Amino acid sequence: MTVIVDWLNSQAFAVAGQSFAVVEVVGFVTGALCVWAVTRQFTWNWPVGIANNIVFLVLFLGAGLYADSALQIAFAAVGAYGWWKWRRGDVAPATLPVRRARAAEAVGGVLAVGVGTVVVAQLLNVHTDSTVPWPDAFILTASLLATWGQARKILEQWWVWITVDVVSIPLYAHKGLWLTAVLYTGFLALCIDGLRRWRTDFADQTAADEKVAA
User: Fold this and answer.
1) Which of 119, 122, 140, 185 is the most buried (most CB within 10 A)?
2) Mind spelling out the 3-state secondary structure of 73-115?
3) Total domain count for the chain?
4) Are residues 123 and 132 in contact, defined by beta-carbon separation less than 8 angstroms?
5) Parts of the chain with a pLDDT under 70
């Protein structure tokens, strides 16, 4: 295990004096592939995402982003649930439909992110040397909400991901994780595309249901 971690933290290449570690490159590739697969509702996005979580756990620990590090463990756990949920569907494999968030889910999600951000930020302030507790805490809580919504194919989860990306890009640039900042810029574009695709799929489902009901 030590050998693998050492390899992940080794330099992959350098550009204009900026060094990029193997872990950041692997995280870039697996992360981009995972989000692209989600936009197209491919079930294999989940195992790729879990591999990405392991890689980013190593990266964020090294950068002192402790909430983001803990988030990767939670991501992997929710990812296993999402993998099972998407494979199982509601009735048969690969039949889980895209749906809108219920009012209780939307309100509960906003409250959970607000409370979670405050609690995690305070924990980071007291128990770690984090220099960015608030954005780090927000990314953790909002990302968990988005992943839960993604597992259940809730359309509005894309708006949560878009907000997470907007916060993450300057944070990672501030931490010197330039390749990861570029990756999250790509995530932002993919999330906008995913929102568009899922909206179209939801509209098609609704039209088909109305046609059957008529």
Assistant:
1) 140
2) HHHHHHHHHHHHHHHHCCCCCCCCCCECCCHHHHHHHHHHHHH
3) 1
4) no
5) 1-20, 89-95, 214
